[in-house]
Design a protein that fits this description.
Layout lengths: L6 E3 L2 E3 L3 E6 L7 E7 L2 H19 L3 H17 L1 H12 L3 H22 L5 E4 L6 E8 L2 E5 L7 H12 L3 E5 L5 H12 L8 E3 L4 H10 L3 E7 L2 H13 L5 E5 L4 E5 L5 H13 L9 E7 H16 L19 H17 L2 E4 L16 E4 L6 H4 L6 E7 L2 H9 L3 E2 L1 E5 L3 H10 L4 E4 L15 E2 L2 E2 L9 H4 E8 L3
Parallel strand pairs: 7-8, 7-10, 8-9, 10-11, 12-13, 12-18, 13-16, 15-16, 18-19
Antiparallel strand pairs: 1-2, 3-4, 5-6, 6-22, 11-21, 14-15, 17-20
Helix pairs in contact: 1-7, 2-4, 3-4, 3-6, 4-5, 9-10
Length: 482
C-alpha cells in the first residue's frame, strides 16, 4: 500500500480524521487506495479558504482562467490511458469506457478554457435619455460540488470546469465509494497554477461533508448529482438556509427506448444493448424500459436475447470485456432485490440475472431481461441502476409514446424507427430533456447541455455554454455619464 492520500485545502495537502478504503469491484482483494476522510472542521476550513480566494479569483482575467483550465485539460488528455485504468479499477467500467470517460473530462476542461475567453456582457441605452445600461455576469461565490460514483471523473469535470471558468471558488466532495479518480483529478488541478483556496478537495460522507456544505452560510450554491431522495433533501436544505442557496440537481431516470415495427432490427438491438447494459447499466441515462410495438416485439426479444448471450462479463481491466462488475455489494443486493420484485409482480425473467464467478472475487451479475412487463410494475417505475431492463409491448406508436411519457422521470428517451414522421413527432412530444433517434439513450456530447425534466433534474442545465446559467448571476448596472 502507498501512503494515505490527503485532502486539498487552501493550497495544501492535509491529513484527515479517518480513512476511506477504495476496493476494486472486479477483485475485492485489491485495495485501490486509502484516502484521508475529512470531518466537519476540515470542511469548514475548505469553505473558509474558498471564501478568502473568491474576491481575487472572481476578478481574474480571462487569460488567467484560460491558462489554468487549458493546463488541466492538457494533462488529463495526456494521461487518459493511465487515468482510465484507475477509473476502471475503482468503479468497474470496462477499460475502454474508463479511457473514454477520462478523455471526455479533458475535453470538458478544454471547452471551458475557451469559454473563459468568451465571457461577454451587453451594453445598451436606457429609456431615460443619456443613461447607459450594462448587463454582466459574475461568479456566485463558494460553490459546493457533490458528485456520484458512477462517473467519477467526467461529472466532477463538468461541474468544476464551469465553476472555475465563471469565477467561482470550489469545494469538491467526490463520492466516498470511489475517491480515486476525483483525487487524481484534484492533483492535476493543484498543479495548474490556480491561487490557493480557489479549488479544495474534501473526501468524506454526505452526512458530514455534504451536510456541512448545505448548512454553511458562506456556501453560495450547491451542484449535486445523485439519488432522487438525496436531491430532495438538498433542495429543502438550500431553500431553508440563510442566506438561501442556489442549487442544481441531477437525479434519477427511468428512460424509455421505443422500438417501432419499421425499425432496423440490428440497429435497434445494438442501441438497446448499449443503452441498457454497457457501464453495467449504472447510468442515469440507461434504457431500462424497452417499449416495443407488437409487429416487431417477438423478433426483437429473440434477437436481443441472442445478443445478450454474447456479452462477456468479467474483470473491467481485461480485454474483450463488454460488461464489468456491479460497483459494490450494496448495489448488487439492490439489483437482486428488483429481480425478485419483478418476478413477484408477474413479469418473466426472460434471460440472465445470475450471479457469476470469475477468476477473482467480485460483484459479477449477468445482464437481465424481463418480458411481460407492464408500465405499472415497480421495475418499470423505479430506478434500479443496474444491468436490468424490461420489455413492455405496445399496440402502436401512439400507445408506445404514451407509455414512454408515463413516468415521474424525464431525463432521456429514444426511438428506433426508419420513419421521419415518427422520429420528428417523437422528438417534439417526448417529455424528456434529451432525445435520441436510432442511438442509445446514454451518450451526450461534452459541448451540449445535459439535463432532464420532471423528477430527473432541477435548475439550469449542465455542460456546454448553458452551464453559465447556473454558475453565474446577472448584474444590471446604470451609468449617468454627466
Amino acid at each position: 500500500m502507498t501512503a494515505i492520500l490527503k485532502n486539498f485545502i487552501g493550497g495544501e495537502w492535509v491529513d484527515g480524521s479517518g480513512i476511506t478504503r477504495n476496493i476494486n469491484p472486479s477483485n475485492t482483494n485489491d485495495v485501490v487506495g486509502e484516502y484521508a476522510r475529512a470531518d466537519r472542521a476540515q470542511t469548514e476550513k475548505a469553505i473558509a479558504a474558498a471564501k478568502a480566494a473568491f474576491p481575487a479569483w472572481s476578478r481574474s482575467t480571462p487569460q488567467e482562467r484560460y491558462d489554468a483550465l487549458n493546463k488541466i485539460a492538457t494533462e488529463i488528455l495526456a494521461r487518459r490511458e493511465e487515468l482510465g485504468k484507475l477509473l476502471a479499477r475503482e468503479e468497474g467500467k470496462t477499460l475502454p469506457e474508463g479511457i473514454g470517460e477520462v478523455a471526455r473530462a479533458g475535453q470538458i476542461f478544454a471547452f471551458f478554457a475557451g469559454e473563459a475567453l468568451r465571457l461577454t456582457g451587453e451594453k445598451g441605452s436606457s429609456v431615460r435619455p443619456g443613461i447607459d445600461v450594462e448587463i454582466t455576469r459574475e461568479g456566485l461565490g463558494v460553490v459546493g460540488l457533490i458528485t456520484p460514483w458512477n462517473f467519477p471523473i467526467a461529472i466532477p469535470a463538468w461541474k468544476i470546469a464551469p465553476a472555475l471558468c465563471y469565477g467561482n471558488t470550489v469545494v469538491f466532495k467526490p463520492a466516498e465509494l470511489v475517491p480515486g479518480s476525483g483525487h487524481a483529478l484534484s492533483e492535476i488541478i493543484a498543479r495548474s497554477g490556480l491561487p490557493a483556496g480557489v479549488f479544495n478537495l474534501v473526501v468524506g460522507s454526505g452526512s458530514v461533508v455534504g451536510q456541512t456544505l448545505l448548512e454553511h452560510p458562506d456556501v453560495s450554491a450547491i451542484s449535486f448529482t445523485g439519488s432522487v431522495s438525496t436531491g430532495r433533501k438538498i433542495a429543502q436544505a438550500c431553500v431553508l438556509s440563510t442566506p438561501m442557496k442556489k442549487f442544481q440537481l441531477e437525479m434519477g431516470g427511468k428512460n424509455p427506448l421505443v422500438v417501432l415495427d419499421d425499425a432496423d432490427l440490428k440497429v435497434a438491438v445494438e442501441v438497446a444493448v448499449n443503452g441498457s447494459y454497457f457501464s453495467t447499466g449504472q447510468r442515469c441515462t440507461a434504457s431500462s424500459r424497452l417499449i416495443v410495438t407488437a409487429g416487431i416485439h417477438d423478433r426483437f426479444v429473440e434477437a436481443l436475447t441472442e445478443r445478450m448471450k454474447g456479452l462477456v462479463v468479467d474483470d473491467a481491466l481485461k480485454s474483450g470485456v463488454h460488461v464489468g462488475p456491479v460497483v459494490d455489494q450494496s448495489q448488487l443486493d439492490q439489483d437482486l432485490r428488483y429481480l425478485k420484485i419483478g418476478q413477484d409482480e408477474g413479469a418473466k425473467l426472460h434471460w440472465g440475472g445470475e450471479l457469476l464467478n470469475r477468476e477473482a472475487p467480485g460483484f459479477y451479475m449477468q445482464p437481465a431481461l424481463f418480458t411481460g412487463v407492464t408500465n405499472a410494475m415497480r421495475i418499470a417505475r423505479e430506478e434500479i441502476f443496474g444491468p436490468v431492463a424490461g420489455v413492455i409491448k405496445a399496440r402502436d406508436y401512439e400507445e408506445a409514446l404514451a407509455i414512454a411519457n408515463d413516468t415521474e422521470f424525464g431525463l432521456a428517451a429514444g426511438v428506433c424507427t426508419s420513419s421521419l414522421k415518427y422520429a420528428s413527432h417523437f422528438k417534439r412530444n417526448s417529455e424528456a430533456g434529451m432525445v435520441m433517434v436510432n442511438l442509445p439513450t446514454a451518450g451526450v456530447d461534452y459541448h451540449v447541455p445535459f439535463g432532464g425534466r420532471k423528477g430527473s433534474s432541477y435548475g439550469a442545465r449542465e455542460q456546454g455554454a448553458y452551464a453559465r446559467e447556473f454558475y453565474t448571476t446577472v448584474k444590471t448596472a446604470y451609468t449617468n455619464p454627466d
